[in-house]
Amino acid sequence: MAIGEQGEGVGKGRSGRMRPAGARRGGGVAARTALSPQARWERLVMRRPGLALPRLQRIIERESEPPFQALLGAFFILERWGRGPELQRELERALNRAHQQRLREESSELSEALGRLHYQRGDYVQACNAWSEALELTGDATRWACLARIGLAQLCFALGDWARGGRMLDQAERHYPQLTQDAYLRAKIGLNRAVSLRATQSPQAAMARLEKARAAAREAGHLDYQAEAMWHHARCARDTAAAAEALALATQAESLARRCRYRWLQAQVLLLMSELLSGAEAVAPAEQALALGEALQSRAVQALAHGRLGQLMAEQGQLGPSWHHQQQRQRLEATLALLGQTELPARLEQLARFDAEPPQEEAPVASRHEAAAQAQALLQTIERMSQSTDEAERAGMLADALEGARRLVARLG
Predict the structure, then answer these.
(1) Which of 108, 331, 363, 388 has its CA 20 to 30 A from that of 357?
(2) With a cut of 70, which residues of the chain have pLDDT below it?
(3) What is the domain class of 37-161 according to CATH?
(4) Any idea what DSSP says for residue 282?
(5) Bias category Gly residues: which stretches (predicted)?
(6) Cα separation of 19 and 2, whole Å?
(7) Distance (Å, rounded) from C-alpha 227 to C-alpha 249?
(8) What is the pTM (predicted TM-score) of this model?
């Protein structure tokens, strides 16, 4: 995302890209000076999207061939608001133009953005194709290569291939030299790491990573990812049977997501709230989540919402509505399963060249951080066990500690 407007010290290059004089290509946000017009625009898009969007839309509307960066900036905003598909045709036309002009970097950046659009909708094969094209067109050290690898990691996680997804994140971190200065991408990687840790290790192991991701999101001024970190925190609390804490965190996350207009996250948090509530109270959040899923054209969100509503209707003895929702859930899940079990795994296998294991002596720092987080979670469990006077609770903690120790031994070999 690198947005500028003529008349504010920003030049227009041969490609239609708008950039300040002297801005370096490929480095993304962090490679530019903080006080440049470009950097001011990027900060505005991140922190004040409602102010930036009308200006970007004016640029797009007045040009027969809108500048690539104006399109990408507008898409960055509309994507979060659940309106990304509004720009799909414009982005595809811009990508064709970049291909015709043999602008590899611009083509890569546009392909990466289209990958995000396809992924949110549940079109996983198209997302995989777009992200792999982004990697093929650019060097490893660019910001959009880092973003494309994060996207491919998310696809691997969706298929349950946690090991390959983790390696994709390792490479996203390893190859992007500006990562330490790019708080937005550190937050994005941190959130995905936390998802992986929660699924493969424990909620406790995910917590340390979530705190770092939330701190990076605050540094970037990106409220969306702060809200997302809060949602993941709520899920971890639910997993540890802290239902009251989970509901409080989910309520805060939903409020912040609504304020940001981050509709995908709002739908996910509403589903969590419905799960934490019961009876009639649980119905409204699930219905709101379904409406958001339909507006987003997200098959995954719709399937989850239909499943929850089917369960709630059955509990209330409303068998007709329950049957309808379960049928809709099965239809959507079948579509997602077909995409996930046929073409997509084969496409991911073709990306082996982007999934090389690092040499042993270059093992990623992230793996050491994860081992440290795992050890810290184990220590916290033991400390709580030493303070507990409830025998049943102590027995449960002992089982958790033993399992955590086994995982740590397996990781360290």
Answers:
(1) 108
(2) 1-39, 339-374, 378, 388, 390-413
(3) mainly alpha
(4) G
(5) 1-13
(6) 8
(7) 10
(8) 0.75
